[in-house]
């Protein structure tokens, strides 16, 4: 047996809410033959906890855990040498250099430090990071850090790699590299296997065995190929001719999340078309009728091969609580030509380093605008300049007509900002956070009260009003953070990797909100590493090494030889092509 | 040997981290300098009431008057005895701080030739110099009330035990203790909590390193830093204030080094227990500062405070260290007490290390 868990019980102690039970009567077995096992599920499902229990960093309150016959125990050197654990926070020493980190962790796992230098260099060479060996770990870009942490785990040649979200917050290019490193390791070491957690379902789909957790329960498990067959008759693509294509904002509310008896579970834009996932046993004719009734445009409905993501959505939605929406469906969204953000030739230098070079773009009213790019491309810098958190070295930024360099405060009043780290006050309760933000936006007392009541309802925060925000589940923190940013009804909403680490379902709900806001005329500017989220954008740009490489609608930017390709493919190809070209120029 | 196989690499890791982290350097080098200046020049306080013993060999209306004046003043706690030899012995044993010996004069005849000798316990010179004013005034007032001219007597003042009468000498030995308490606890408070804050502890625990090795590596490296700090502290302190060391210099050093070790262990124990650098540093400063300065008898004599505070003072290690340092610096001798103190502080340190290891084991090993 690879994994053998019997009657596991585990709970966390918290100050506010007492003991929170993560696992109760949890049992799970897995054969030795699997090489790549993926754990997925929403925030707070217990993925990280389970991985920590498997490593022995946490100990079960009750029950037994066996990993290849051994009980996880960090004091048992035999066990410890057979595994490697990479935590979500990486857990390396940020002030030390890359090579020192590698050396220390290799030595602590029993490698001879004198003989291992060559070997460690060869590992670094393999991921093309040898030139960074003396760089301080903290100065690396997100993708590089992740790779180094993975190398630290691999260096001791463990039998079992336990990786907690090895690709969270990482761009598609680095993700690809990280997974090829993992695949190579488990491919060349016969006895080895990898247990990892991920919020990316396309990564999960590459594993042999997937386990979907929710609230400490296994809601679905099985070989990945088998799992996909579970929803085999439930996936369709809705195709429109070019001119007939409806705006996503007009149709996103056709799902059962908003219309109780809708046959559609999920609807999202992919590859320029609309992907549908429908309820079990839905007849195609009924679906067509429903669609005709609600979409007054010609379409072709085609069956589509289903993915693990569809399975996840179908199973995840079963527990979804239906919320009566208070906005009008099919609102017939009208595009506006008013420009709300105007960026003209901006440039940002940090010392000698040029972070952003000559960038210009416009964002219109009600538009969803995406900033994409690999880690360290200058997205966040661009983003922070538009929000007024950084001042550009050159160029001009107009936000709602205010020149940011002259009227920063006036401009700021019209924007809302959700950062990757949520910037909530951890020690304040949900309600206190809301009140604090409402006051800091200068809302009057009666307005404050109304807005808070409304927003609490919109984001279903009622249950959590008195919980400290630091103790909220991650997904709820995300909701609260967005709620806080919307209290003053901003004209522009900035979302900086706000969905990082979120499961597909949470991301769907998040984008429902974004679409709703956008259809009311709020412009939304997003950065994300989930390339499929870019399909929601009216326009997006791809940036690398400070320069804008491409700017346009998804259909314009993601067409290759007349055929529509995925944003991810377009992204990876564009970046690789651009880097090759730049490197060639440099050599010349 | 095999048990501590991973100690060297962990020590190497801590060493690298300290090299990179300038804040630790500032803490261990600049803080002792700063504190020795602040403490040495700023903390000088007075104590009240002062215990006085008046020896009156002959009783007459004047001596009665003087005793009465002292009894009435709330600045003094007064005893009266005719036995000078016994009183003198009690004075040496520090039962009271001031001994007033009235000589001369007859039973009835109160007038001329009266001689008053005032002995002050100069170890606490601050107290001595302030109380001298009060003593003079009280005696003057007794003379005036008895209808006598104030020129009719002479007062001889003798400073015992601290002949140069430097308050900083008396305080400095105690300041070394409180500075070390604050410094070592502060330094220790970051050590394990930083691993928690940066979430590196889990990765560290998922290696072969045992809890004992982790804790020991940290103590060893940080103790080396502490040793540097002690040198800086003592060199600066002695250079600025030139406190004489009456007792054994070696014992003084050993005593301070052991004490610093104990306080470092206490800081590290706190950091393992509390797991947040911010909270831990706050707590370390509060409990490192308060007992060492307020409750150790350094400034407020434990015999003068309420019993409950005195009791708390007596269960805290700094109290014994302050006393030991005073003996070593000012009077010398009593080596049994010094040895006892070293042993006591060392035992506590060992217990603290054991508790820290247990805590780390419980949390993630």
List the helices and strands and how they pair.
The complex is a heterodimer of chains A (588) and B (365).
Chain A: E1 3-13, E2 19-30, E3 36-40, H1 47-55, E4 62-67, H2 77-82, E5 83-86, H3 98-108, H4 113-126, H5 142-155, E6 160-163, H6 172-188, E7 193-197, H7 201-204, E8 209-214, E9 217-223, H8 224-228, E10 235-239, H9 248-251, E11 264-270, E12 273-278, H10 284-294, E13 300-303, H11 308-317, E14 339-350, E15 353-364, E16 368-372, H12 379-387, E17 394-399, E18 402-403, H13 408-412, E19 415-418, H14 430-440, H15 445-458, H16 474-486, E20 492-496, H17 504-519, E21 523-527, E22 539-544, E23 547-552, H18 554-557, E24 559-560, E25 563-564, H19 567-587
Parallel strand pairs in A: 3-7, 3-8, 5-6, 6-7, 16-21, 16-22, 19-20, 20-21
Antiparallel strand pairs in A: 1-2, 1-4, 8-9, 10-12, 10-13, 11-12, 14-15, 14-17, 17-18, 22-23, 24-25
Helix pairs in contact in A: 3-4, 3-5, 5-6, 14-15, 14-16
Chain B: H1 7-20, H2 22-42, E1 50-56, H3 61-72, E2 76-81, H4 84-92, E3 98-103, E4 114-121, H5 125-145, E5 153-160, H6 167-197, H7 201-205, H8 211-241, H9 249-274, H10 277-295, H11 307-315, H12 317-331, H13 335-364
Parallel strand pairs in B: 1-2, 1-3, 4-5
Antiparallel strand pairs in B: 3-4
Helix pairs in contact in B: 1-8, 2-6, 2-8, 3-5, 6-8, 6-9, 6-10, 6-12, 8-9, 8-13, 9-10, 9-12, 9-13, 12-13
């Amino acid at each position: 047996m690879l994994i053998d868990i019997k009657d596991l019980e585990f709970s966390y102690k918290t100050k506010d809410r007492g003991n929170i039970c993560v696992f109760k009567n949890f049992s799970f077995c897995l054969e030795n033959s699997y090489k790549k096992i993926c754990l997925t599920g929403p925030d707070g499902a217990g993925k990280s906890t389970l991985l920590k229990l498997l490593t022995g960093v946490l100990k079960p309150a009750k029950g037994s855990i066996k990993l290849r016959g051994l009980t996880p125990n960090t004091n048992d050197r035999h066990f410890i040498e057979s595994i490697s654990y990479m935590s979500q926070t990486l857990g390396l020493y940020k002030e030390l250099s890359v090579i020192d980190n590698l050396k220390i962790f290799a030595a602590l796992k029993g490698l001879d430090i004198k003989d291992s230098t060559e070997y460690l260099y060869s590992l670094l060479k393999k991921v093309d990071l040898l030139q960074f060996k003396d760089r301080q770990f903290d100065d690396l870009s997100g993708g590089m850090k992740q790779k180094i942490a993975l190398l630290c785990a691999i260096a001791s040649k463990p039998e079992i790699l336990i990786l907690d979200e090895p690709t969270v917050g990482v761009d598609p290019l680095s993700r690809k590299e990280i997974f090829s490193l993992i695949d190579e390791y488990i491919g060349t070491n016969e006895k080895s296997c990898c247990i990892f957690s991920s919020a990316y379902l396309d990564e999960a789909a590459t594993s042999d065995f997937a386990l979907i957790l929710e609230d400490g329960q296994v809601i679905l498990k099985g070989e990945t190929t088998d799992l996909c067959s579970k929803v085999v008759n439930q996936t369709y693509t809705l195709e429109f001719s070019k001119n007939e294509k409806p705006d996503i904002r007009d149709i996103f509310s056709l799902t059962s999340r908003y219309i109780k008896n809708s046959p559609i579970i999920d609807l999202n834009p992919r590859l320029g078309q609309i992907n549908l996932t429908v309820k079990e046993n839905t007849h195609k004719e009924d679906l067509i009728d429903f669609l005709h009734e609600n979409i007054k445009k010609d379409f072709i409905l085609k069956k589509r091969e289903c993915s693990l993501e569809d399975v996840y959505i179908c199973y995840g939605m079963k527990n979804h609580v239906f919320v009566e929406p208070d906005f009008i469906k099919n609102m017939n969204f009208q595009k506006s030509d008013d420009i709300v953000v105007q960026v003209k030739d901006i440039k940002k230098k940090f010392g000698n380093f040029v972070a952003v070079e000559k960038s210009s773009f416009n964002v219109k009213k009600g538009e969803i605008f995406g900033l994409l790019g690999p880690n360290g491309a200058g997205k966040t810098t661009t983003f922070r300049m538009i929000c007024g958190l950084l001042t550009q070295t050159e160029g001009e930024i107009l936000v709602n007509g205010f020149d940011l360099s002259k009227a920063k405060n006036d401009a700021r009043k019209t924007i809302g900002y959700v950062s990757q780290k949520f910037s909530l006050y951890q020690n304040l309760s949900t309600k206190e956070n809301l009140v604090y933000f409402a006051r800091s936006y200068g809302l009057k007392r009666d307005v404050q009260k109304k807005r808070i009541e409304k927003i609490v309802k919109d984001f279903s925060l009622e249950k959590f009003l008195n919980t400290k925000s630091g103790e909220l589940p991650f997904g709820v923190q995300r909701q609260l953070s967005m709620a806080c940013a919307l209290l003053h009804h901003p004209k522009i909403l900035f979302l900086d990797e706000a969905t990082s680490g979120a499961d597909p379902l949470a991301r769907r709900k998040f984008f429902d909100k974004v679409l709703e806001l956008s259809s009311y005329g709020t412009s939304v500017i997003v950065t994300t590493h989930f390339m499929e989220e870019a399909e929601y954008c009216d326009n997006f740009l791809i940036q690398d090494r400070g320069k804008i490489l491409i700017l346009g609608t998804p259909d314009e930017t993601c067409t290759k030889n007349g055929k529509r390709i995925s944003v991810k493919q377009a992204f990876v190809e564009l970046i690789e092509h651009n880097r090759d070209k730049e490197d060639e120029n440099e050599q010349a | 040997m095999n048990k501590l196989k991973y100690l060297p690499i962990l020590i190497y890791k801590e060493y690298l981290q300290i090299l990179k982290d300038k804040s630790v350097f500032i803490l261990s080098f600049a803080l002792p300098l700063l504190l020795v200046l602040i403490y040495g020049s700023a903390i000088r306080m007075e104590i009240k009431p002062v215990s006085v013993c008046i020896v009156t060999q002959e009783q007459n209306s004047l001596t009665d008057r003087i005793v009465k004046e002292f009894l009435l003043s709330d600045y003094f706690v007064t005893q009266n005895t005719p036995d000078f030899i016994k009183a003198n012995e009690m004075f040496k044993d520090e039962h009271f701080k001031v001994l007033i010996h009235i000589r001369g004069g007859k039973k009835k005849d109160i007038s001329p030739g009266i001689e008053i000798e005032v002995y002050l316990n100069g170890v606490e010179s601050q107290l001595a110099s302030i109380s001298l004013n009060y003593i003079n005034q009280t005696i003057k007032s007794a003379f005036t009330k008895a209808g006598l001219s104030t020129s009719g007597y002479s007062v001889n003042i003798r400073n015992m035990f601290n002949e140069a009468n430097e308050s900083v000498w008396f305080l400095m030995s105690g300041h070394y203790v409180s500075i070390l308490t604050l410094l070592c606890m502060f330094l220790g408070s970051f050590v394990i909590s930083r691993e928690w804050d940066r979430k590196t502890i889990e990765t560290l625990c998922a290696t072969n390193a045992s809890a004992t090795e982790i804790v020991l590596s940290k103590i060893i490296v940080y103790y080396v830093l502490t040793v540097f700090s002690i040198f800086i502290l003592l060199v600066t302190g002695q250079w600025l204030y030139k406190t004489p060391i009456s007792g054994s210099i070696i014992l003084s050093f050993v005593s301070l080094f052991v004490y610093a070790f104990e306080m470092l262990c206490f800081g590290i124990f706190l950091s393992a227990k509390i797991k947040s650098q911010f909270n831990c540093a706050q707590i370390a400063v509060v409990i490192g500062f308060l007992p060492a300065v307020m409750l150790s008898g350094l400034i407020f004599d434990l015999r003068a405070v309420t019993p409950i505070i005195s009791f708390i003072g007596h269960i805290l290690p700094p109290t014994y260290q302050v006393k030991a340092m005073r003996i070593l610096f000012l009077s010398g001798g009593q080596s049994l007490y010094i040895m006892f103190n070293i042993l006591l502080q060392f035992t506590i340190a060992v217990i603290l290390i054991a508790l820290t290891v247990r805590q780390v084991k419980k949390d993630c090993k």
